[in-house]
Amino acid sequence: MAPSPKVQLPAVPADAPAYWAQACQHLVKKDRVMRRLIPQMGSAALTSRGDPFITLARSIVGQQVSVKAAASIWKRLEALPPAMEPQHLQRLSVEEMRGAGLSARKVDYLLDLSTHFIEGRLRPDRWPEMDDEAIITELTAIRGVGRWTAQMCLMFYLQRPNVLPLDDVGLIKGISECYFSGDPVSRSDAREVAEAWKPWATVATWYIWRSLDPQPVAY
């Protein structure tokens, strides 16, 4: 059997995680879908906003709504305070936040999140020394922060390389379309597919998202 032709990988942006090129090389060797997807997507990569509060707040806004709807709500919310910081968010009225398109429940979640930051109950400075599950445990103690939201923080703020958000609707849909010709996919099916992605599940997930929407996702 003739060897597979060498895949030409896109250039890696300067602000990409340090592991991105290595991860892409691994994925195109181990996974037939990644071998096709990664060269198609051009020279873009996961980026961090560098602010744990904003990443968590954006993730809460994005819960159970489309990426497009979440971006629209966030844009309206972000325009209300002078800066998107915990102290400024606390000064907004419930009516103002609801007017941006947030549900009453998400308003409560965002206010509780901002309280955790203001009172120092969250210590992001310690997260680099903690493993993924320990951080998830700390974050899910906050009202409104479930496993998916915590995993978005791991991926987009800390840029952890091997996060597999099985509760993510887009990931499951993308796996269904890319690996199962659109047939329904269980979490077990998705986990089995992702075995080939280790230890770079974050990178593979990012490319699966982009297979559904070429615009990079950013929390």
TrEMBL record:
Belongs to the alkylbase DNA glycosidase AlkA family. InterPro entries: Alkylbase_DNA_Glycosylase/TA, DNA_glycosylase, HhH-GPD_domain. One of its GO terms (cellular component) is protein-DNA complex. Keywords: DNA damage, DNA repair. Residues 61-213 form the HhH-GPD domain. One of its GO terms (molecular function) is DNA-7-methylguanine glycosylase activity. It catalyses: Hydrolysis of alkylated DNA, releasing 3-methyladenine, 3-methylguanine, 7-methylguanine and 7-methyladenine. It comes from Comamonas denitrificans. This is DNA-3-methyladenine glycosylase II. The keyword DNA repair applies.
